[in-house]
């Protein structure tokens, strides 16, 4: 097993995840089988209970694991399926060690950070790195390990020590470290001192960076690169410049142009490995498609204006997978995505009284948008503004996509304005008490425990009889069922299904028992769709999520064209397998 460790210094949030994902993609395009592991030094068992405004979105995997958003980058770039085991946290490791100690596995020894915790980290990595992650069902050749946070943080030290030991344990030519550091630009001068100090700290901790990836706003001057190489004691070619690009999907191309693959191949002796000719050919085809899709000047593309009406708009990473899904779809539609952020509270009447400028600005954005998106979320705050946006979309023929809470919002709005249930609400909205709760808590969910108790993971949705007219179903390929990832506690109240259906709200998709409403769609509308699942978790750069693709295409007025381009056959999907149990002709990896 070959390991590529990606660590960071100076500051956090410099793009370790994108560099790790891009490195994995470049290795995969050479025919290698690649896996990924993310190490997060926080004590939480998983990311499920974290505030999205602080930590960003929670990414959900097939097995229901609630993990760090960087695992979403790995899956999107590498088109692999990871498990909750691929996300290691301090909480998981200490829980594992303590459970072993309680069982007596350490034979009465004093349990310490070194060697017991560090050994547990290494054993976890070695075990998970070997798990198959793609359709080959074979052990990966390379595992990309991203060490979260910055080297030098107290909470990271056990993992740093474990990585130092893993390097020795893996053996010569089986381990390489890429250290990501930020090069600030102050008064027009590129400063290298922070990176010099970061490299010294990394080395003092026992790690030896083989490559230094320098994050910067503008290309580094040759003198800056030379200075970094000289004072960090590496060769010039070991300094990789990762400047800001128009699109993060161009970062792999930037790294390739600087010879990252030959550098990795030289250190890891990749040329000595026997690779499948079919995987090499497939990798070359993937790389050709990737460059053709991502290296475009969006200035010459027609724009599509999408307004996102949410409640966590202060931190855009709260909706990271949503943003990526929209980007994937816009690229497929050959449009330049213009994403407009609207705080849902700004659409409410109380804002008109207190902050009229914000109120009128928000409504101007909603009324002039090509499409309206209401994503997932929790709690009552801002939901009245979301309902106002959904009503606007329904009445004015503006394409609408509701995800999870966004679907429930559409159901409540429909019940209020077309079913005569004027006080329709959700059991979640305790601040708005009502006897007509059209959205209720799922009976099997634990109401007391927060972490890991939602309806999570990949589950089937069955298309209902008579739904052949559905625009969304056409994009999925008229399959009888689809599989998408879920994360929710509430559902449409079965008591109101008949009344809502009679009023024209079509429940075109249900769960495998026919009890839980999964998809709603309006028939005589350009695109009005709500889904209980989170399709953004399965969207890929070369294989966009179907609900998002249809939404963006309808907003760009090219839905018919995109539906025809998907190239369906009776035996399944030809141009991809996103959310579908279909056949893949290999044009997507």
UniProtKB/TrEMBL annotation:
<dbReference type="InterPro" id="IPR033828">
    <property type="entry name" value="GATase1_CTP_Synthase"/>
</dbReference>
<dbReference type="InterPro" id="IPR027417">
    <property type="entry name" value="P-loop_NTPase"/>
</dbReference>
<dbReference type="GO" id="GO:0044210">
    <property type="term" value="P:'de novo' CTP biosynthetic process"/>
</dbReference>
<feature type="domain" description="Glutamine amidotransferase">
    <location>
        <begin position="315"/>
        <end position="547"/>
    </location>
</feature>
<dbReference type="GO" id="GO:0097268">
    <property type="term" value="C:cytoophidium"/>
</dbReference>
<dbReference type="InterPro" id="IPR004468">
    <property type="entry name" value="CTP_synthase"/>
</dbReference>
<protein>
    <recommendedName>
        <fullName>CTP synthase</fullName>
        <ecNumber>6.3.4.2</ecNumber>
    </recommendedName>
</protein>
<dbReference type="InterPro" id="IPR017456">
    <property type="entry name" value="CTP_synthase_N"/>
</dbReference>
<comment type="pathway">
    <text>Pyrimidine metabolism; CTP biosynthesis via de novo pathway; CTP from UDP: step 2/2.</text>
</comment>
<keyword id="KW-0547">Nucleotide-binding</keyword>
<dbReference type="GO" id="GO:0005524">
    <property type="term" value="F:ATP binding"/>
</dbReference>
<dbReference type="Pfam" id="PF06418">
    <property type="entry name" value="CTP_synth_N"/>
</dbReference>
<keyword id="KW-0067">ATP-binding</keyword>
<comment type="function">
    <text>Catalyzes the ATP-dependent amination of UTP to CTP with either L-glutamine or ammonia as the source of nitrogen.</text>
</comment>
<dbReference type="GO" id="GO:0042802">
    <property type="term" value="F:identical protein binding"/>
</dbReference>
<dbReference type="InterPro" id="IPR017926">
    <property type="entry name" value="GATASE"/>
</dbReference>
<keyword id="KW-0436">Ligase</keyword>
<keyword id="KW-0315">Glutamine amidotransferase</keyword>
<comment type="similarity">
    <text>Belongs to the CTP synthase family.</text>
</comment>
<dbReference type="GO" id="GO:0003883">
    <property type="term" value="F:CTP synthase activity"/>
</dbReference>
<dbReference type="Pfam" id="PF00117">
    <property type="entry name" value="GATase"/>
</dbReference>
<dbReference type="GO" id="GO:0019856">
    <property type="term" value="P:pyrimidine nucleobase biosynthetic process"/>
</dbReference>
<feature type="domain" description="CTP synthase N-terminal">
    <location>
        <begin position="2"/>
        <end position="270"/>
    </location>
</feature>
<keyword id="KW-0665">Pyrimidine biosynthesis</keyword>
<dbReference type="InterPro" id="IPR029062">
    <property type="entry name" value="Class_I_gatase-like"/>
</dbReference>
<dbReference type="GO" id="GO:0005737">
    <property type="term" value="C:cytoplasm"/>
</dbReference>
